[in-house]
């Protein structure tokens, strides 16, 4: 919420280049934080059998059998011990995910959604000022948007509690909401309309960021989650670079922000189509083989 005001202050004090340098330094601290993080390793220690040379061989053999039976009984009756599962290599997981058609369609849709959001936010303040608002009013609109995005990130988690609603449905709904809001910002005229539309735009932005990890977990499962996120994030990064460049080119060519925001709505419309396509593919696969789910390999 405070980030727009911080950037405005840094631009006034140090200029645009100084602002970007300071923000980059703040973001660079995350490298140090993540460098000292490590996962907690929890293992089950297995006692080694003791060797007693002075005991009778028959008694030693009998006692060892009783000991093994006792250990097997303890392990089978204990609910606190998680037996190790079969481990797969990263290559095997990648081969699994590249055949998951539903996941691939979702990656394309969420990449279009989030990259378009990023391109729209670059020129949001300038766009609002071209509509006749003062700089402080534009910053206040931006504050409303960020507040709505922060407070409404829990909505996707609440939505999936409703029967027959999952991550893909939530993604399609909030992306369509942002599509309509982008067009609404172009035709809005009053101050109240802009406040409402910016809040709705923030809700869609926050929820689409939430469904990224939530739907990835749903489609690939916990075992493949790290690989799935590793695929999604680079695709989003590359698409965000392309979206920002294309958006800036449209502004330079047309001399207006309207074309850029119309392209935002059009891109979100394509993303909604991809989410609906993923839902249709999943429904078709379930109808043909009811025991399959999203994590099944589709050859």
Explain briefly what this protein structure is.
The chain is 75% helix and 0% strand. It has helices spanning 3-35, 57-77, 90-97, 101-122, 124-130, 135-151, 155-159, 167-187, 191-220, 225-254, 258-288. Keywords: Membrane, Transmembrane, Transmembrane helix.
Question: What does the model show?
Answer:
The radius of gyration is 27 Å and the shape is globular. The chain is 75% helix and 0% strand. It contains eleven helices and no strands. It has helices at 3-35, 57-77, 90-97, 101-122, 124-130, 135-151, 155-159, 167-187, 191-220, 225-254, 258-288. It has two domains: 1-28; 100-288, Growth Hormone, Chain: A (Up-down Bundle). It starts with a helix and ends in an 11-residue tail after the last helix. The model is unreliable at 42-55, 57-66, 72-84 and 291-299 (pLDDT under 50). By secondary structure, it is mostly helical.
Determine the CATH topology of the largest domain: Growth Hormone, Chain: A
Query: Which quaternary structure do these chains form?
Result: single chain
Structural class: mainly alpha
For the record, the CATH architecture of the largest domain stands as Up-down Bundle
Give the class-level CATH name of the largest domain: Mainly Alpha
Distance between the termini: 45 Å
Strand content: under 5%
The percentage helix is over 70%
The CATH superfamily of the largest domain is identified as MFS general substrate transporter like domains
Total helices: the number is: 11
Count the domains. Answer: 2
Outline, from the CA principal axes?
Answer: globular
Spatial extent as radius of gyration: 27 Å
- What is the string of helix and strand elements? HHHHHHHHHHH
